[in-house]
Design a protein that fits this description.
By secondary structure, the protein is an all-alpha fold. It has one domain. 81% of the residues lie in helices and 0% in strands.
């Protein structure tokens, strides 16, 4: 999730719920909510990788690794 996603797709729903109820309950503003979601997603991803290793499975296939390397090369140009 990026700031663009938060601003474009989730802003209206976030605004409607947070101003009425959830902001008082949770106390999140947009930036804090974005950081919270990033941490939560990283933690979830890490758990999925660890569980796959425990089961003896490869989380990333060779095709996925190749695609990630290609995307990384494109991002550096």
């Amino acid at each position: 999730m990026t700031k663009w996603n938060l601003n474009s797709s989730l802003e209206e729903a976030w605004y409607l719920t947070s101003n009425n109820y959830y902001e008082k309950q949770d106390g999140y503003d947009k930036e804090n909510y974005l950081e919270y979601m990033k941490k939560r997603q990283k933690k979830s991803h890490k758990r999925r990788v660890e569980k796959a290793k425990e089961r003896g499975e490869e989380y990333y296939t060779t095709l996925q690794v190749r695609q990630m390397e290609y995307a990384q090369r494109l991002a550096t140009y």
